[in-house]
User: Which sequence fits this backbone?
DNA sequence: ACATTTCGGATACTATCGGTATCTGAGTGC
DNA sequence: GCACTCAGATACCGATAGTATCCGAAATGT
């Protein structure tokens, strides 16, 4: 063992490599697209060769799953924050729409997810993984909606699960459309949300 | 010129070839996916070789656009019929949801469209073509919604354009999700539609 | 401290697939 | 019936995901 502390264990090295690969892959997948980005390019941009990718991930698909996970974490954080910062329904929706404006379609999170889902549809493993993530997202959203409805004392026209599924679908669909046609205005999201979470008319 | 009438002009032959290619491509793209289906396979399954594809289409992308067009025609027909057959709002929505149950996600129209949109995002030409089709779809839907609102004498909480965009997004998003996770119930569509086209309160 | 083992990452190779260049033969017009 | 055209066939190229193999440095045992 050498004198200074710069010495690093193999596991740590590999963890760094993995992290760096995910980081670079995320950047390239988001800007160029999943299918359009060759594995080599990711590896080289991260300062490695393809071998590094294959000794850290089972293949391109698993690399992309890791990328999606890193994005999910941020998304959930953003959503929870948007909803919990404010207190009244309108400003909550406004904060959420503001988050959506930044996150749905512009940095193409959704486009990547959707492209990947479509491209990897044939792989049962990937399909299962994606479904798992969607269900987590959905129950998280449903919980949030239920909680807010409770706090605001309103009775929703849709069950929290239905509302969550609708919002998620809406987000995915709008993200997909906006990545092609940026003229679509996210503020429609606000209107749709208001409709979906509007209290039942008595 | 031979005696019987089975003789066919070159243009007619080519039209037949083109049609057959689209037909077979549609079938394969829907069942196997766009990226997962090699051009050769389409050509051979149709009884030709790759050369036939390239002398009828500029490439795989244009073949897929032709496939999408053939699907759009059917979709529009189905939607218009669902809405125009019945007269009162509820049974119209019901008919539409019934159409959606058959068409959104099961035969993977949406999955194909979404996969193609994602895969071909980098091509400005394809992007323009898809945007054109979406705008047509959207204004068709908006027109239908406006007409129905008029007939039913209700004032919508969203403008017809907004409602159309929302519904289209919802359809795309749900189609994409359902193609992965068939446990998602389309009946949520009914609830979401009712919310979105619900008359303004007060 | 030296030999041995392990394994993260590199290199070389294969298979697949979209696209291009070239060819061929049946159908067309003179 | 002869030269020509063009739909479709064939042969090839380049890109890229994945595999098989190799190398060298870090870990381990004595």
Assistant:
């Amino acid at each position: 063992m050498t004198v200074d502390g710069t010495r690093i264990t193999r596991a740590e090295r590999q963890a760094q490599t993995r992290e760096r690969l995910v980081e670079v892959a995320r950047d390239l997948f988001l800007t160029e697209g999943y299918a359009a980005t060759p594995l080599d390019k990711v590896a080289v941009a991260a300062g490695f060769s393809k071998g590094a990718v294959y000794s850290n991930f089972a293949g391109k698909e698993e690399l992309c799953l890791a990328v999606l996970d890193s994005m999910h974490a941020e998304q959930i954080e953003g959503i929870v924050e948007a909803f919990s910062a404010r207190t009244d329904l309108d400003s909550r929706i406004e904060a959420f729409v503001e988050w959506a404006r930044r996150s749905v379609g512009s940095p193409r999170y959704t486009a990547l997810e959707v492209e990947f889902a479509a491209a990897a549809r044939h792989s049962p493993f990937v399909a299962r993984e994606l479904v798992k993530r969607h269900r987590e997202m959905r129950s998280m959203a449903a919980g949030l909606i239920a909680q807010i409805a409770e706090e605001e004392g309103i009775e929703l026209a849709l069950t929290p699960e239905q509302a969550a599924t609708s919002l998620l679908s809406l987000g995915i669909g709008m993200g997909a459309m906006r990545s092609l046609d940026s003229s679509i205005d996210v503020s429609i999201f606000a209107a749709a949300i208001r409709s979906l979470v509007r209290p039942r008319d008595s």
Remarks:
- Chain A touches chain B at residues 32-36, 111, 114-115, 117-119, 121-122, 127, 130-131, 134-135, 157-158, 162, 165-166, 168-174, 176-177, 179-181, 184, 188, 191-192, 194-196, 198, 201 (CB under 8 Å).
- Residues 9-10, 13, 38-40, 50, 54, 59-60 of chain A lie near DNA strand D (CB under 10 Å from a C1').
- The radius of gyration of chain A is 20 Å.
